[in-house]
Design a protein that fits this description.
Number of strands: 16
Number of helices: 8
Strand order of the largest sheet: 2-8-7-4-5
Strand content: 15-25%
CATH class of one domain: Mainly Beta
Structural class: alpha+beta
Distance between the termini: 161 Å
CATH topology of one domain: Immunoglobulin-like
Shape: flat
CATH architecture of one domain: Sandwich
Helix content: 25-40%
Length: 378
């Protein structure tokens, strides 16, 4: 009899321990939970206090409390997977054995809507706190499938009488096939009309039903040309004598290595396109060529034989070539070509004569000051 009474008492204690809200009703249980709500939504703060009965802070033989958060099992409704485990440190428990559990509802693991459980374990004792949570990640409930009775079918979400649709009308008969040389008109085969004659493009004519090229017209040759083999060619009798070729820039060509160098081409363009287009420029170039070609072949040969000399000449003539680019500003008039030519000559005289002479005088005055080598009589 005593054993039966003891068993009933133990069963009642266990039922009271695991029943929802039991921690709020009995403060003499080993583990008491207060402050928890019944329903939470995503983003809500879940906070409750846990009191451990007969807790002693100096008792190092007992393991600290462990708090587990269990997700609902959608199949059975019981607690399922463990979402979180909180290890309570002795420093988190006050002298009365009370500590606070705080967490935020929601997250990628809070997938199900239902009853979540907080399982608190300490010194072989357990306490369960249950709360409800509505998850926005939960799958929507499937829509009920409407079942129709016999003789009806589901159409547009409603049960309607199953009336067989009338059979489709028979297809129209295929059109007759016409033989070669006939076409179908108004359901009958008639002879195909002959094709219209082709239209020839410009430069062609219709001959025997085909377009052929027209004979090319004889060209009309202008003055100084004659017709030969269907094309106009220059009349040798009226062709002018070829103009004498202008001599090359020997020193610049040797300095830059080729007549195709940009500097050499610029000199040719200034000479042929600007200077020689005026009477004064042609007269100047005649005198210049007589003087220039009296020594330029020898200087060009020395440049080819001595690379160092060629580099020195290139450095020496580069300022002069750049100064000649001023002639490209001419509009082709006699006066402007003459004025720009005088300006270029004066500029080169200043660079190659006046500047070196001035430098020589200054060096001489600095190296041999006046009175340094004067002698006095005894």
């Amino acid at each position: 009899m005593k054993a039966a009474v003891a068993a009933v008492a133990v069963a009642a204690s266990i039922a009271a321990l695991f029943a929802p809200g039991a921690a709020h009703a009995d403060t003499h249980l080993p583990i008491t939970v207060t402050g928890a709500l019944d329903l939470y939504a995503v983003g809500s703060e879940i906070e409750f206090d846990v009191k451990l009965r007969n807790y002693k802070s100096n008792d190092t033989l007992k393991a600290p409390p462990v708090v587990r958060l269990l997700a609902p099992d959608t199949a059975t409704g019981a607690a399922g997977n463990v979402l979180n485990i909180i290890q309570v440190l002795p420093s988190d428990i006050n002298s009365e054995g009370v500590f606070t559990i705080s967490m935020k509802a929601g997250g990628p693991l809070w997938k199900e809507t239902g009853s979540y459980k907080v399982l608190i374990t300490y010194d072989g004792q357990e306490s369960v706190q249950t709360f409800s949570y509505t998850s926005p990640l939960a799958a929507p409930a499937p829509e009920p499938v409407l079942e129709c009775p016999d003789g009806q079918i589901l159409r547009g979400g409603e049960c309607v009488d199953d009336i067989p649709e009338p059979p489709p009308p028979p297809p129209p008969p295929p059109p007759p096939e016409c033989p070669v040389g006939q076409i179908l008109e108004n359901g009958q085969c008639v002879d195909e009309p002959p094709p219209p004659p082709p239209t020839c493009p410009t430069g062609q004519s219709l001959v025997d039903g085909r377009c052929v090229d027209d004979a090319p017209p004889q060209p009309e040759c202008g003055p100084g040309t004659i017709l030969q083999n269907g094309i106009c060619v220059i009349d040798p009798a009226s062709a002018p004598a070829p103009a004498p070729a202008q001599p090359g820039c020997l020193i610049a060509t040797a300095a830059y290595g080729t007549e195709l160098a940009p500097q050499v081409q610029m000199l040719r363009e200034i000479r042929d396109g600007t200077v020689l287009t005026t009477e004064s420029g042609s007269s100047f170039m005649g005198w210049f060529n007589d003087v220039y070609y009296s020594f330029s072949p020898a200087v060009a040969d020395l440049q080819r034989e001595h690379p160092v000399f060629r580099e020195a000449v290139r450095v020496l003539i580069t300022p002069m070539i750049h100064s000649l680019s001023i002639m490209s500003l001419s509009d082709g008039s006699e006066s402007q070509v003459l004025a720009l030519g005088i300006a270029v000559i004066a500029l080169n005289a200043g660079m190659y004569v006046a500047a070196p002479a001035t430098a020589a005088v200054l060096v001489r005055r600095h190296a041999w000051p006046r009175g340094q080598y004067e002698f006095t009589s005894p």
